Amino acid sequence: MALCLAAGLPMAALAEDPIDPKSYEVSYDEDGRYFTEDDVPTFKIADDGTVDWLTFSGFRRYHAECHVCHGPDGEGSTYAPAIKNSSVDLGYDEFVNVVVNGRNNGNSVMPGFGENRNVMCYLDDIYVYLKARGTDNLARGRPAKKEAKSDVIREDEDACMG
């Protein structure tokens, strides 16, 4: 078995397990938000490449708040690791916990953003954007087409931002 010289690991250890489509398939929608059968927020990308509003908003919010450390499109940087797979690997509840409370694993520190409205009011948006990136359903860069923002999403944003 070949070794990965950079990490000293067998190449097989670097292979990713296939992502279960049920972890992101749309089961139902409510006012422009999409959910899996387990009631977890997810993305919707039409055949023509049109993304749902939250995924588009998540791209914008990620690049306003997160990419400074984690690099464009969740690909990582020399400062912080890639997080495009975080919403898939961690799942919704743990992803929210890390963003709200932060994490210190000894080698790196992720600050908590629980008091930052620019993150918290759009946390599901950022989550579904990273989920679309982490499942390889969304390419790098700004989505070219998006669904319209629903009135309910607009009202919720206004209420959250104050």
From TrEMBL:
It holds the Pfam family Cytochrome_CBB3. Keywords: Heme, Iron, Metal-binding. GO terms for molecular function: electron transfer activity; heme binding; metal ion binding. Residues 57-129 form the Cytochrome c domain. Coiled coil: none annotated. Gene3D superfamilies: Cytochrome c-like domain. This is C-type cytochrome, methanol metabolism-related.
